[in-house]
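Hi all, posting the design record for the shared folder.

TITLE: backbone redesign
STEP: 1 of 1
STRUCTURE INPUT:
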């Protein structure tokens, strides 16, 4: 399984209980399809950069997960069909590039002395 970040925006006109129910349904879908939720974070209601479906605000939900291919397809399908989720983005997290342990930092060349300072 690979690690992913899922961010989705929920309509601002629904109550907190409906937002929590949608988040629970998404997390349950992840675990039912063989994935794992590593981190779940609600960023709260924020102003959008541009109107989406005539909404100027939305409630942001962020998930850090490990997903299978089946889970990815099912989450994408559910968020597209949901009337409450107005936008979503699923991004694969790349493994960090590690620097070699024995690599020395590059040396900075010293400027040559000019005859005026000598």
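Okay, here is what came back for every position:
SEQUENCE:
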């Amino acid at each position: 399984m690979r690690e992913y970040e899922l961010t989705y925006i929920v309509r601002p006109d629904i109550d907190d209980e409906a937002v929590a129910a949608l988040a629970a349904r998404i997390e349950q879908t992840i675990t039912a399809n063989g994935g794992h939720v590593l981190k779940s974070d609600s960023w709260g209601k924020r102003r959008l950069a541009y109107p989406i479906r005539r909404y100027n605000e939305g409630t942001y939900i962020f998930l850090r997960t490990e997903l299978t291919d089946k889970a990815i397809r099912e989450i994408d399908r559910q968020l597209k069909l949901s009337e409450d989720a107005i936008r979503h983005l699923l991004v694969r997290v790349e493994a960090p590039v590690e620097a070699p342990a024995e690599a020395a930092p590059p040396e900075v060349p010293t400027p040559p002395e000019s005859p005026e300072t000598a």
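COMMENT: DSSP finds two helices and four strands in the chain.
Let me know if anyone wants the other runs.
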